[in-house]
Specification:
about 200 residues, disordered C terminus, 2 strands
Amino acid sequence: MDISTIIKSIAAIATLVGAGKAYYDLIAGKSVRLRDDYRFSREFLSDIQKGELHPYSIEKGYQALANSTVVSTSEVEYILTLEDPVKCLRDYVLAHDYLEKINVDGNHKISFKQKYVSKWSRLWRKILHIVLYGTFAFLAFTPLIFGKMLGLQLSQVIIAQCIAFPCFGMYAWFSLKSFARIFRGENIVFNQSKQTHKIIVKT
């Protein structure tokens, strides 16, 4: 076995070990974060029910639960009464620009803003975002796809790919996220089932 093979083997093993450690750290970090989220939510909601918090702390606490400052206290309060509140809150934060909380005959509910109420207004936007995503994703990998056809050298393909991927990839991500916002908004608007035991929150 020559020295170059040994070096390559060591490098491959080091890469695998590094990737494994990074994956373990990611999983471990997520587990710790979930436990912290549980302790915070339990203590915060318990303090609210005891009526021991200042309105400022209540607002900040609800924002911490939502992991966002774009939602209001009343919005989070309502979402906590729905089935699967973790998913509903995550969906609401993501789709917040498209949604609003309204009062219908004394009952609260989440609805689309007037601009997005009609099914057609959402459909053509979803189609547009998917088309844009496909276009930008294709452009992001154009150097790899057409590099050989255009007679580019490997070094030129690599350089072009390093430029194309972040530029077009960013717009592909934005387009996909815009589609997801509308889709997740529809999920929460059309699936607002209340919990069988409503959480009591006091402000």
